[in-house]
Write a structure and sequence with these properties.
Chain lengths: 92, 478
Amino acid sequence: MSDGLWFIFGDREIPAESGQSIGAALIAAGYRSWRTTRHGGAPRGIFCGIGVCFDCLVTVNGRSSQRACLTEAAHGDRVEPQEGAGRADLAC
Amino acid sequence: MPTSPAEPGGAAWDIAVLGAGPAGLAAAAAAARAGARTALVDSAPRVGGQYWRHREGDRGAGHHHWPVLRGLRDAVRGLDRLDYLAGHAVWHEERTPGGFTVHATDAQETEGQRSREIRCRTLIIATGAYDRQLPFPGWTLPGVYTAGGAQALLKGHGVTVGRRAVVAGTGPFLLPVAVALAGAGVAVAGVFEAGSPAGFRRHPAAIAGNPGKLIEGAGYLAALLRHRIPYRTRTTVVAAHGTDRVTAVTVARLDADWRVLPGTGQRLDCDAVAVGYGFTPQVEIPLQLGCATRLDGDGSLVAAADEDQRGSVPGVYLAGEVCGVGGAALALAEGELAGLHAAQASIGARPDRAPAARLRRRRSGLRAFAAAMHDAHPVRPGWTGWLTGDTQVCRCEEVSLDEVRRSVTDLGARDARTIKLLARPGMGLCQGRVCGYATACLAADLRGHAGLPSADDLRGLSARPIAQPVTLGQLAGD
């Protein structure tokens, strides 16, 4: 059940409950991965779920490398998947 | 609140407690009741740590010792001398004249996040532990979770990790994870315990002294039966399969040293795996302060604590998993003792003899039980045989077993720290938290020490000058 809170991931609105992490809401919505690794381009999502492993990084409202498992979803957040080092803005 | 370095007047608090799990909560409540001005510092938005991870409005269904949490939570809210600093991730601490300065980022200020200094005379470190992992082919596939991660998603966020899950690893923690998943409607295809918990019977005194633990374990086994979940010992997940997410695992029988018994591999379809091989204590803060560490019975590096829960550095006390993995009941006893003794050291409050003696007796019984657990659930060296050359040991830097081996055979590394410098396992974002234990095992293995890591190997992979990610602006003091 959703408290009417949602955030935007790609072109989808993802429902979330109050206090739920972005990562948990993504898993509930059927996603398993939202990051690719720097070297192999391999898909990653949540592994440890408690902020230890840094596998679940996302960009939230323009801030890169946020841990999806720890970051509580806020209404209207814009969440983007993260590729490589998460600094596409620095690439030329 | 007087936390800025610009404000005058020495230490703002007599005692700072780092971590608000069972040990930290018990320590903070005991210290504040003894009269010490106490700060309870924790990175999460709510108290409870990993053990009592819960949601707002949670009534404690599926939690153990919930009334204890309620009591401690009420103490945190009600005690005048106790300030609870939620959402504060500690990244560094230093000894300063008259005590310590703890540097923490305020996790709640997302915009323009700045670092905060918390000054105290005495420090109680209760930073807990996280799941210990062993790599295996396919363990980096999405859908493979740590056992604690699967549990955290459920207890903390009300989300199940999949429809059909496999639980594997070693240790008693696998049981509550499987039971919780099944209770939430997940089809659990099996609990695969790599060890042979029968070894437990070698410790009749430790078991007899802790009947509650035995009843708890029996309750989980009964729940497995009720949910018709198979429980297999000397068996584990040796590979996960899938392309962009896990779709199946191979489980296989193991010999006493955890080598796969040929021909016993069996493929099981699943969309989630929860895996854990015991716990790794979070010792970076004691290491930053120069506290002595030692190898514990479960092969973990832990901070050394004396009878009064005192570390080797003056003014530092330790409680809970950081000084030896032993579960919540032990953490509560150690926390309360640490709080009482830290209050004595900090403000001269003398603990009442009778309650302190009772706490020591309880601690001693629970430690005996923990030692029996460690003895019954050792990680055996044969796990390295589950890996193929291209299996990633380090998830962050994507370092394969072959690359780790080459750092030894071609480049002459002899210890874990040199392997890290040459092949980069443990150099990524998690700073070796996930692969540190496995890399230390491999270092010992490649030296011919049958995969049993030394304290030095573990120390070389556990030291982190900065315990949490911070921005350059925060480091520069902006």
